[in-house]
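Might you be able to consider the sequence and fold that I enclose below?
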Amino acid sequence: MLTRSVIDRAVALALEEDAPWGDITSTSLIPADATATAELVAREAGVFSGGEVFRAAFALTDPLVTVDLHAADGEAFDAGARVATVTGPARGILTAERVALNFTQRMSGIATLTAQYVTETAFTGARIADTRKTTPGLRAFERHAVSCGGGHNHRRTLSDAVMAKDNHLAVLLAEGLSVTQALQQMIARLPHTTHVEVEVDSLDQIEAVLAAGIGTIMLDNFSLDDLRRGVEIVGGRAIVDASGGVTLETVRAIAETGVDVISVGALTHSARALDLGLDIRVDRAAEPV
């Protein structure tokens, strides 16, 4: 999802938002021919994400600014690590600084939080997945960050896969249709390559959903005992996805119930920005007249 065109479009909009008529502080205070070097430094340990986004913020501001990345996306670093070096016209570096940091801090924060969830569930067989609870317009960036942290992406958009949730099932029941029959009719209309996931919120819904031949069943807000029982009922007939109120404190126990996937909205809607700073020094300024 995070292609060059997606990066450039979002970063250009962010730069326009931040400096719609230019950076009047830099242009009025900094000599036009001043050059500088800036170091992207980690104030805390984490997992890096957004290197090409960071680079794009400077390139779109001033093509003469160059960025050397010292960490790859998905690479862990310690506090104090030098993550990237930026060199070039001082005005361009100062103008792009905030946008570059906003993206990279946000993405690295998501990657770091995801890595913590992945570590908590190590050797259980369960994969950590994100959800569609992403910042509007920035899903590709946040989903990329989840991947950098070792997590997996759920369906990318409403167009990619079927996911019938409780509200969909409520409409079917109001229309007098059985869940099994309605799902079978839907599947018959879909391309054979389309994956179908159905959310249930009680154990007694599982058999009716499985009878339709779906690929994944989501057990939403189940207790640990009910998750274990749900996994037993499914018995390998579908992928089992657990969701609802997952935290770092509860994720290990959820994984140990035998589910295949754990969907965690908090990866994107609750991750805090990682503390990264840009330390700038001026290499050369114009000689006074």
